């Protein structure tokens, strides 16, 4: 089967600081987040599609300078960026094509994870990556609570579910191309609009009978969101 990677890099990274989109920020390896992600997937795929913010599409092309990398414009929401990539790749895809969709904000994805996802795709049409939840989780009540003489109005714990039933999602999230394309086409016909946060959410919501299997992730495959998430320049990240 043919694997194509989609790297979602259409954000502006406002929460990460540094005054520029985080996909262009240098890591301790001397390369940007975007370059690091592209290099991680290159051995496992036949084509890479990078979804870039329209204002930085040309900078993205200049940074990568590879004719085998397709750069397309992203949308305002994550799902719009994925859909733009799916549309752009449709002429290149057939029934034997898989799509691996990855957040550029996770540059330390290990080769083992990508390889395990590709192997799982040989027998499963929908695959995601996740790690067990280690913190206790609260389900919050729909209403907040305040004592009669209190000055604040605080959230209220409604339930404390068993944490072993939860896993924290990572990427890549991978699918047979025709499956994820069909799920998005169903989503776009939803009169209530698309209200999910990732590609697995699209499949789960609009094709609920489709099983999604989980490949074990890794804590190093973390999402870099805030300044404190980024390694110091002299700090080495070991990716296994």
Q: Which key features would you list for this structure?
A:
alpha/beta, seven-stranded mixed sheet, 25% helix
Give your account of this protein's structure:
There is one protein chain. By secondary structure, the chain is of the alpha/beta class. The protein is 25% helix and 22% strand. The strands form 2 sheets. It has a 7-stranded mixed sheet, with helices on both faces. Helix 5 (177-188) crosses helix 6 (199-206). The protein is globular and about 65 Å long.
Secondary structure topology:
Layout: E1 2-9, H1 33-41, E2 47-52, H2 57-64, E3 69-73, H3 78-89, E4 97-103, H4 111-121, E5 126-132, E6 139-140, E7 157-159, E8 167-176, H5 177-188, H6 199-206, E9 213-216
Parallel strand pairs: 1-2, 1-4, 2-3, 5-9
Antiparallel strand pairs: 4-8, 5-8, 6-7
Helix pairs in contact: 5-6
């Amino acid at each position: 089967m043919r694997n194509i990677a989609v790297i979602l890099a259409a954000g502006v990274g406002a929460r990460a600081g540094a005054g520029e989109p985080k996909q262009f920020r240098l890591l301790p390896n001397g390369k940007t987040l975007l370059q690091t992600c592209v290099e991680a997937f290159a051995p496992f795929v036949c084509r890479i599609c990078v979804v870039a913010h329209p204002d930085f599409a040309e900078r993205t092309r200049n940074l990568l300078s590879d004719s085998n990398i397709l750069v397309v414009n992203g949308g305002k929401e994550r799902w719009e960026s994925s859909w733009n990539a799916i549309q752009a790749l449709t002429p290149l895809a057939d029934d034997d094509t898989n799509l691996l969709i990855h957040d550029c904000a996770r540059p330390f994805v290990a080769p083992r994870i990508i390889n395990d996802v590709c192997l799982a795709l040989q027998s499963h049409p929908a695959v995601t990556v996740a790690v067990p939840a280690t913190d206790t989780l609260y389900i919050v009540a729909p209403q907040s609570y305040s004592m009669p003489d209190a000055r604040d109005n605080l959230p209220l714990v409604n339930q404390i579910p068993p944490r072993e039933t939860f896993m924290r999602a990572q990427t890549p999230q991978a699918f047979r191309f025709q499956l994820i394309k069909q799920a998005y086409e169903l989503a776009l016909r939803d009169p209530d609009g698309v209200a999910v946060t990732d590609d697995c959410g699209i499949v789960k919501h609009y094709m609920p009978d489709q099983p999604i299997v989980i490949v074990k992730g890794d804590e190093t495959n973390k999402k870099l969101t805030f300044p404190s998430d980024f390694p110091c320049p002299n700090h080495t990240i070991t990716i296994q």
